[in-house]
Specification:
There is one protein chain. By secondary structure, the protein is of the alpha+beta class. Among the domains are: about 210 residues, Beta-galactosidase, Chain A, domain 5, CATH 2.70.98; about 190 residues, no CATH class. It is about 40% helix and about 20% strand. The strands form 3 sheets. Strands 5, 7, 8, 9, 10, 12, 13, 15, 16 and 19 form a 10-stranded antiparallel sheet that branches. A 5-stranded antiparallel sheet has the order 4-11-18-17-14. The chain is elongated, with a radius of gyration of 38 Å.
C-alpha cells in the first residue's frame, strides 16, 4: 500500500516540483508587471492635450478639430473618478491677535478666548440657597474650569474629533468672534475660522438661566466632520481626594439614568442615541448636554490621568509622597449629520435647579443627576425636609439639622415605647425560657431535638405576646436614616461651605474635633441608660465601650453635619430613656433586670450594665 507522506517534511521530488511551480508563477507576475508599465509609459497624456488644444484654438462646430475636442472631453469625464479629489477652497478667516469675550447674567460670568473659541473661566455668581457666591478652598470666587486639567487636556466647549492633528488645529486656531469685551445675556456669540479647506462655525446663545445653546458645524473640503463639543474633564472645586473620587459620567438613555465612576469610564468610547442627556459631574456641579435631536446624537467619553501631587489638599487621609494620579473624566456630544445642535447645562446640582431643566421633546428632567447612594430614596426626602426647615424655620443649616433630628426622634418615640414593652414581656418569661434551654442543653446543636426547643420557646413567646423582632424595630428605622444621611450630606451643594458655630464647613470634619468627643460621650450614655433584656453581660460590656469608640473614630474623619445629627439623636434618646425609666413600665423593667442580675451574681456570673435609676 502506498504510504502518505507530507511533502513539507521531506526533501524529495515533491519539494522540487513545488519550488519550480513557485518560480514559474513569480516569473509570470514579473513579466505582466513589466508589460503593463511599458504600455502605460507609451500612452499619451490625453487630459493635458485637451487642455492645451482648448486654449490654443476655438474651432467651429462640426470641424474636425471640434470633433477631436469632443472626443477628448469624453475621455476626461471617464477618467475623472480615478483622479485625486479636488479640494474646495473657501476664504481664509483667521484672527490676527488674541481676544476675550465675557458673557454675564445673574447666575454666571463666562470668559471665552478666541484661541480655540473655548472657555477659560466659568464663575457661578449665585448660590441656589443661602445667598452669596460659590467660593473655592481659598475663599475666592469658584472657577468651574479645572485650570490644571484644562491646560493639559482641553478647555470647556472645545472641539474633539477622531483625528489628533485636526484636534490640535481646532484647539489652537485663532477664531474671529462676532463680539469682544463684555456682553450681557440674553446674547449670542459666534466664532468663525477657516484656513482654506477647513471651516468651523461655533455659535452660542445665552439667556437668564444656567442653560446655553450651542450650534457647531465643521467641514473639511466641503465634507461635514463629526466634531464633539466637549467638557474634557474636571471642575474647579476638585481639590481633595473626595472631590476627585466623586467624578463620574452621567447619562439618561431610554428613560434610564446611569452613573459611571471616573475610573470605569472608557477613553474615546461612544454612546449612541436616543440620548436624552449626558455629561460629566462631581459631587456638586455638572456639565450636561441636552441634544436638540436625541435620536441622531452620539456621546463620547474621555478619561485622562492627572498628577495632582502639587495641588491636592490633604483631607481625612494623608497624601503619599510622589505622583498622585487621579482620573479626569470628560464628555462631549456630536450629531451623526456633522451639524450639532444642543443645549448645555453648567451649574450646581441643586434639586430645585435640576427639576426645572428638561430634555428636548418634553424629555426627563435632570433631577436624577443627583445620586445619594444605596439609600438614595430616603436621602432625597431627608434633604427635602431639611431644605424646608432651612427655608421656613432656621436660616442656618446647622440648626436645621438639629431641628430635623428632633423631628425624626419624635416620630420614632412610639416605636421605642413599644420596644420597651416588648422587652419587659421578654424579661418576665426569661426564667421559663432558661428552663426550656436547660432541658435541651444535653443535646448537640446539630441534634434534631434542638428544633423542639426552638418550637417551645416560640410558643412561649407567642402565648405571652412577645414579638421576637420587637427589639429590632428602632434599629431598623434609625440605621437606614443614618446611612441615608451619610450618603446625602456630602452630595448636596446647598450645604457646601455651610457655617455653624465654630465650624466653617458642615461637609468637612470638625477642625477642633469637639464633636467626635461629644459623640463618644453621648454614645456611651446611650449604652449605659438603655436596658438590654436578654443580652449577654459580656456583649453588653463590649457594646458599651466599642460602639462609642467606633462612632468617635468615624465622626473624627467625616463631615461635621453627620456628627451633629448623630450626637443630637443620642442626647434625645438619653432624655427619652431617662423619662421612660421613671414611668411604671420603666420601674418594672429595672426591678426585673435587677432581680435577674442578683440571681446571676449569686451564681458567680458577672454583673451587667442595666438601665440607671
Amino acid at each position: 500500500m502506498a504510504q502518505y507522506t507530507n511533502p513539507n517534511q521531506q526533501g524529495g521530488g515533491d519539494n522540487k516540483s513545488f519550488m519550480v511551480m513557485m518560480l514559474a508563477l513569480l516569473g509570470v507576475l514579473l513579466g505582466m508587471q513589466f508589460i503593463t508599465a511599458k504600455k502605460k509609459a507609451a500612452e499619451p497624456k490625453q487630459p493635458t492635450a485637451v487642455t492645451q488644444s482648448a486654449s490654443a484654438s476655438n474651432p467651429t462646430e462640426g470641424s474636425p478639430s471640434a470633433n477631436s475636442d469632443q472626443n477628448a472631453s469624453t475621455v476626461v469625464q471617464q477618467s475623472a473618478p480615478a483622479a485625486a479629489p479636488v479640494k474646495t477652497s473657501v476664504p481664509v478667516v483667521e484672527a490676527k491677535a488674541a481676544s476675550t469675550t465675557v458673557i454675564e447674567n445673574e447666575l454666571y460670568r463666562i470668559t471665552f478666548s478666541n484661541k480655540g473659541g473655548q472657555v477659560t473661566s466659568w464663575i457661578l455668581k449665585k448660590k441656589p440657597a443661602g445667598g452669596g457666591i460659590f467660593e473655592d478652598n481659598d475663599g475666592k470666587p469658584l472657577n468651574l474650569v479645572h485650570e490644571q486639567a484644562a491646560a493639559k487636556f482641553g478647555y470647556p466647549l472645545s472641539l474633539h474629533t477622531s483625528d489628533a492633528s485636526l484636534n490640535t488645529t481646532l484647539a489652537n486656531a485663532m477664531y474671529v468672534p462676532s463680539a469682544t469685551g463684555n456682553l450681557a445675556a440674553p446674547a449670542t456669540l459666534t466664532f468663525k475660522y477657516s484656513n482654506g479647506d477647513l471651516q468651523v462655525v461655533k455659535t452660542f446663545s445665552f439667556d437668564e438661566s444656567y442653560v446655553l445653546h450651542s450650534d457647531v458645524a465643521v467641514t473639511r473640503n466641503g465634507q461635514p466632520v463629526r466634531a464633539y463639543i466637549m467638557w474634557p474633564g474636571g471642575f474647579g472645586d476638585q481639590y481633595d481626594s473626595y472631590g476627585y473620587a466623586s467624578a463620574q459620567i452621567d447619562t439618561s438613555i431610554d428613560g434610564k439614568t446611569d452613573h459611571t465612576a471616573a475610573k470605569k469610564v472608557g477613553n474615546d468610547a461612544t454612546i449612541s442615541g436616543p440620548i436624552s442627556w449626558g455629561g460629566t459631574s462631581d459631587s456638586f456641579f455638572a456639565a450636561v448636554f441636552l441634544p436638540d435631536s436625541p435620536d441622531s446624537s452620539v456621546l463620547t467619553t474621555t478619561k485622562n490621568e492627572l498628577d495632582v501631587s502639587k495641588t491636592i489638599k490633604k483631607s481625612s487621609f494623608s497624601v503619599s509622597k510622589g505622583p498622585v494620579m487621579v482620573p479626569m473624566a470628560g464628555a462631549g456630544l456630536a450629531d451623526t449629520s456633522g451639524h450639532t445642535l444642543t443645549r448645555i447645562f453648567v451649574g450646581p446640582k441643586a434639586i430645585r435647579v435640576l427639576k426645572a431643566i428638561h430634555a428636548s421633546n418634553n424629555g426627563p428632567n435632570l433631577e436624577s443627576l443627583l445620586d445619594f447612594g444605596f439609600f438614595g430614596v430616603i436621602g432625597k426626602y431627608l434633604f427635602i425636609v431639611l431644605q424646608y426647615i432651612h427655608s421656613h424655620m432656621a436660616s442656618n443649616w446647622g440648626w436645621a439639622i438639629v431641628l430635623l433630628t428632633i423631628f425624626i426622634n419624635i416620630l420614632i418615640l412610639p416605636f421605642r415605647i413599644s420596644t420597651m414593652k416588648n422587652g419587659l414581656k421578654m424579661q418576665r418569661i426569661q426564667p421559663q425560657m432558661n428552663d426550656i434551654k436547660a432541658k435541651y442543653k444535653k443535646y448537640k446543636a446539630t441534634d434534631p431535638r434542638r428544633n423542639e426547643m426552638n418550637a417551645e420557646i416560640m410558643k412561649l413567646q407567642k402565648d405571652n405576646g412577645v414579638n421576637m423582632f420587637g427589639g429590632c424595630i428602632p434599629t431598623l428605622i434609625t440605621l437606614p436614616l443614618l446611612y441615608a444621611f451619610y450618603g446625602m450630606l456630602p452630595r448636596v451643594v446647598e450645604l457646601r461651605h455651610a457655617h455653624f458655630l465654630w465650624m466653617t464647613d458642615l461637609q468637612a470634619p470638625d477642625p477642633l474635633h469637639i464633636l467626635p468627643i461629644i459623640m463618644v460621650v453621648s454614645q456611651f450614655l446611650v449604652q449605659f441608660y438603655t436596658p438590654s433584656p436578654g443580652v449577654d453581660a459580656s456583649q453588653q460590656k463590649m457594646m458599651a465601650f466599642v460602639m462609642p469608640a467606633i462612632s468617635g473614630w468615624f465622626t473624627w474623619y467625616y463631615g461635621a453635619g453627620l456628627a451633629i445629627y448623630w450626637a443630637v439623636g443620642n442626647f434625645i434618646g438619653i432624655i427619652q430613656q431617662a423619662v421612660m425609666n421613671q414611668t411604671s413600665l420603666g420601674k418594672e423593667m429595672r426591678a426585673v433586670a435587677q432581680k435577674r442580675s442578683r440571681r446571676k451574681a449569686g451564681l458567680g456570673a458577672g454583673t451587667t450594665i442595666q438601665g440607671r435609676r
